[in-house]
């Protein structure tokens, strides 16, 4: 089935998110859609999937105009979408998730779960998914959960499949498996739309590449284009994709963790007796598949888990058990992995978000009242220094693109006198131009003699920034290795497997 978008325009008030976009997706092709955050990719796919109605333009399937009032219409027309954040019910089985929203019944009005089980087995066998229809989704690894999403789309005979940032929570091995699944679907005649910011993945699977910038299609790229060429088309300028850094000159031990144990919200041990040392002037990267304790470990450094056991000393002083305010005052800068929930207040202006952790500072607050001139002067200087793209300092931070929101967080944390910088997933959902900027700032912080703890699920980022890499699996550190360790060996360690020749 050939999909064609003609002149798609979508406005939100005075903002034009999509501006006359033309796009053709052919059967048996993987069509990659590239663009910066805020370029309009997600809006375009939401129009295609019936979540938004276009203000202008039309959607055609095999030259027949389509009018979608919602996702149900899109699914019935043969369009399926695999969302970045899985749309699954964790306590339901694979088969139950399959028929959710499309419930078929047998005699007496009972759900046809047996038919759903057969459908899961049929599609799994065809594409090698290895899914148990009766397994509960919450018990499956994230790679398998993603395959459930794909099976859901295929069970409704989707001829066009949209993958929106599909590898965000996958291990390197699971990502490779996903790339093969996409090739298999393409070879079976499906039309694939692939949205990703990972240029390496684009080069692996793309048959066709379209670049969107500021809501418009700005060009097509050859499947064999280099990362540098693709990045320049996305951003509109040349981008340095490699991290320029001199070898670290580490100083004395600054941060020492000894037998740190943290329990998660469910009461289970999330961090299990972790001992680590970070020196001044080095980046220690913590790598691992999400859900293996990295989040809780990073949060414990900020005092977010006061019940944690063990010892964490910074510059010789114990910080475990101290309040978040006390830890911040000790010189810890913290970039949370979810900026929307824990890093910013979306309805507050940029200027206020830049001083969120300084409301006890005489420089910005006097007699319990914010000093507007001091706040605004600081905001204007930060906006200029950190290249935050905003109309003004009074713009609500939630209206900025993901990359610019992250720059607000980075600017706030790095503009203090730091003794430790903790960056959790610092470039998640950030475009290549902003990634270049954030990476440069992290290295500058290291070179200023500050110890840096980087938590990232992106192996390319870990390898590029780290001076040492600690790999976590099921709450434990399974090894600390140099950054020239191969991706394959790191991937095995992230799965709890020790590569040949490496001691457990």
TrEMBL record:
Assigned GO CC terms: plasma membrane
Domain ABC transporter stretches: 3-239, 255-499
Gene3D superfamilies listed in its UniProt record: P-loop containing nucleotide triphosphate hydrolases
Membrane topology term: Peripheral membrane protein
Classification via InterPro entries: AAA+_ATPase, ABC_carbohydrate_import_ATPase, ABC_transporter-like_ATP-bd, ABC_transporter-like_CS, P-loop_NTPase
Pfam families: ABC_tran
Protein location: Cell membrane
Chief place of localization: membrane
Keywords for the protein's UniProt record, in alphabetical order: ATP-binding, Cell membrane, Membrane, Nucleotide-binding, Repeat, Translocase, Transport
Domain of life: Bacteria
Gene Ontology MF terms in the entry: ATP binding; ATP hydrolysis activity
CDD domains: ABC_Carb_Monos_I, ABC_Carb_Monos_II
PROSITE patterns: ABC_TRANSPORTER_1, ABC_TRANSPORTER_2
Protein name (database record): ABC transporter ATP-binding protein
Originating organism: Mycetocola tolaasinivorans
Lineage: Bacteria, Bacillati, Actinomycetota, Actinomycetes, Micrococcales
């Amino acid at each position: 089935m050939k999909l064609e978008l003609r002149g798609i325009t979508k406005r939100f008030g005075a903002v034009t998110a999509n501006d006359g976009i033309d796009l053709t997706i052919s059967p048996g092709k993987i069509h990659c859609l590239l663009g910066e955050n805020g370029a309009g990719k997600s809006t375009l796919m939401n129009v295609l999937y019936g979540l938004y109605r276009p203000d202008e333009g039309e959607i055609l399937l095999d030259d027949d105009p389509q009018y979608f009032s919602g996702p149900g219409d899109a699914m019935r027309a043969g369009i399926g979408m695999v969302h970045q954040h899985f749309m699954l019910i964790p306590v339901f089985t694979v088969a139950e998730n399959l028929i959710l929203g499309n419930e078929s019944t047998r005699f007496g009005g009972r759900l046809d779960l047996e038919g759903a089980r057969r459908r899961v087995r049929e599609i799994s066998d065809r594409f090698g998914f290895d899914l148990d229809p009766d397994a509960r989704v919450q018990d499956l690894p994230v790679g398998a959960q993603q395959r459930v999403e794909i099976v859901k789309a295929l069970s409704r005979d989707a001829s066009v499949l949209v993958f929106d940032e599909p590898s965000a929570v996958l291990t390197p091995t699971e990502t490779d498996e996903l790339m093969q699944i996409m090739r298999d679907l393409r070879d079976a005649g499906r039309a694939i739309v692939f949205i990703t910011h990972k240029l390496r993945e684009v080069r692996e699977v793309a048959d066709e590449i379209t670049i969107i910038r500021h809501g418009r299609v700005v060009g097509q790229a050859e499947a064999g284009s280099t990362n540098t060429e693709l990045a320049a088309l996305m951003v509109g300028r040349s981008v340095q994709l490699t991290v320029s850094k001199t070898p670290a000159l580490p100083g004395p031990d600054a941060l020492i963790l000894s037998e740190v144990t943290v329990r998660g919200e469910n009461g289970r041990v999330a961090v299990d007796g972790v001992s680590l040392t970070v020196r001044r002037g080095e980046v220690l990267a913590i790598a691992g598949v999400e859900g293996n304790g990295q989040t809780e470990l990073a949060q414990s450094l900020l005092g977010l888990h006061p019940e944690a056991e063990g010892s964490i000393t910074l510059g010789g002083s114990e910080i475990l058990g101290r309040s978040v305010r006390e830890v911040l005052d000790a010189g810890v800068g913290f970039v949370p992995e979810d900026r929307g929930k824990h890093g910013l207040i979306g309805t507050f202006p940029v200027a206020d978000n830049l001083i969120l952790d300084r409301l006890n500072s005489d420089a910005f607050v006097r007699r319990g009242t914010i000093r507007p001139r001091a706040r605004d002067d600081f905001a204007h200087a930060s906006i200029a220094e950190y290249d935050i793209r905003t109309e003004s300092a009074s713009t609500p931070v939630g209206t900025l693109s993901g990359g610019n929101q992250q720059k607000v967080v980075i600017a706030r944390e790095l503009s203090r006198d730091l003794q430790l910088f903790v960056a959790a997933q610092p470039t998640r959902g950030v475009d290549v131009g902003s990634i270049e900027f954030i990476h440069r700032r992290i290295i500058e912080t290291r070179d200023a003699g500050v110890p840096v703890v980087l938590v990232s699920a992106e192996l390319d980022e870990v390898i590029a920034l780290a001076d040492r890499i600690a790999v976590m699996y099921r709450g434990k550190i399974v090894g600390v290795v140099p950054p020239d360790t191969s991706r394959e060996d790191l991937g095995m360690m992230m799965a709890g497997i020790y590569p040949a020749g490496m001691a457990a």
